[in-house]
Structure formats: C-alpha cells, structure tokens
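FAQ: What does a multi-protein file look like?

Like this. Sequence, then tokens, then the next protein.
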Amino acid sequence: MNAPDPRAYRPAAGIMLINSDKHVWVGKRLDNRYEAWQMPQGGIDDGEDVAVAALRELSEETGIPDTLVEILARTAHELYYDLPPELKDQLWKGRYLGQRQTWFLMRFTGDDTDVDLETHHPEFGAWKWVQPHTLPDIIVPFKRQLYQDVLAAFAAHLGL
C-alpha cells in the first residue's frame, strides 16, 4: 500500500492527557448527536510548531493551561484517519480527506476543578476520565483505528 499524500490531509495535533492514575481525559462533543467521546485535538495554524499547537488546542478545548501539563512523549510519525464519505464535503470545505495528526502524551498536574469547558468557543459539553483500553470503544467508528494506533504508540507509558 502506498503512503497517503499528506497534502490531502489536514495537519493537526492530538493530546492524550492522563492523570496520576493513568486514566485518559475525554470530552463529549457538543456538535455530535451520538454518544461518542474524544481526546482533545485540532488543527495546526500555518507556521505553528506542532507542540505549541497541541498546548493551544488543549487550552482552547478544556480550559487547562500549559502550566498544568507535562509533555511525556509524542508519536514518532503522523497518524492518519479518513473521514467517512458523508462528512468529507461538510468539514473543512471539502478540502481534506481526513487528518494527519501528531499525538502527544501529557500528564495533567492540576486537579479536576482546573478543567473549564466554558471556553471562548466551547467544543465539549461533558468530560470524564477513562481507562485507556476503553478508548476505541467510545470513539466514533471512523477514528477507532487511529485511537488504537495512539494507544500502541504510548503503551509503554500507560503500562499496557
């Protein structure tokens, strides 16, 4: 199989945020009618460093400032996912087939009261901590393989 053309995929950063129990932060999106949860993630602005983008997205989506996290690891290469056909024309003006993401494993050093979903542009209506192995079961189906790849990338840090 040929590698996908990176120009056909939106550049993005993803964050697997873990607490002291090695449980993972997930949020329930406001714009999704399904019972689906996801880790924070988002696009990289032109010229923006990927780690800076990850910390910005984390703050924008969870209200958690970069002073309350420690970067533990990052994926060795970008991970890809494709949008399902019914979403390709709806997201990003139909420009991309999906996303190519660099993922970061971060440790949360604050406490639960530091999470504030009432951000400037709220994306999540609820959040919780989950055991890492449950992630593929609670995500939208088209991101299941991506989440399995993220788990594999950080397995040594998670004790999996």
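And here is the next protein:
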Amino acid sequence: MSNSSIMENFEKKHKKENKYVFEVGDSVDVSFRITEGDKTRVQLFSGVVIGKKGTGINEMFTVRRISYGEGVERVFPLYSPLIESIEVTKQGKTRRSKLYYLRERTGKKATKVKEKLGE
C-alpha cells in the first residue's frame, strides 16, 4: 500500500460530515470546548472569517475579531472534535479568498465586509 492510499483511508475513517457551511467574509460564532484542569467549558469566539486553507482533514479557517481595540485572530481546525458548533451570523460578499487587508484597518472598517444580499 502506498502512503497516499493509507492517508486516504485514514481521512475517510476520521473525517466527519461537514455540516458547517460558511465562506470567507462571513461573520461567525465558533463555540469551542476548552479544558482547564479537570473542568471543560464552551467558549464563544465571534468574528469574521478572513481565510481558509488546507484540504481534507487538514482544513483550517482563521477568524478575526476586534477585542478592546486590539485585533485578535484564531485559527481553528474545521474537523476538530473540540468545535461544538459554528453559526453564521452574517453572510459577507468578497472578491478575494484571503482578507488579510483587514489587519491594517482600525475601528469599524476592520470588521466591515460587504453584506451579501438575498440570492
């Protein structure tokens, strides 16, 4: 067996059905399970999806938010068992696949992405 077929079998076995449908530019609420000592809790991370990368089981997405005037980014693995849910709060319309230009912006412009009108 070649390495690629072993990886494909592994991905088929461990990849759950992708029930989260969102695109770059969407505002999302990510509920992420955090373990502190022997306790676990669910923490909500809200922000704009500024990029997606990877394929298959290695797919990741980056969420950016402004917290107390400072930009905070977090990268989440899409197929992580620690993700409770991903909820799209607002759909955005973009012309790019990576929204890294939002990093240089401040204030309301840093979170402003054109809203997608009803399709």
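Q: Is there any per-entry metadata?
A: Some entries carry free-text notes. For the entry above: The chain is about 10% helix and 40% strand.
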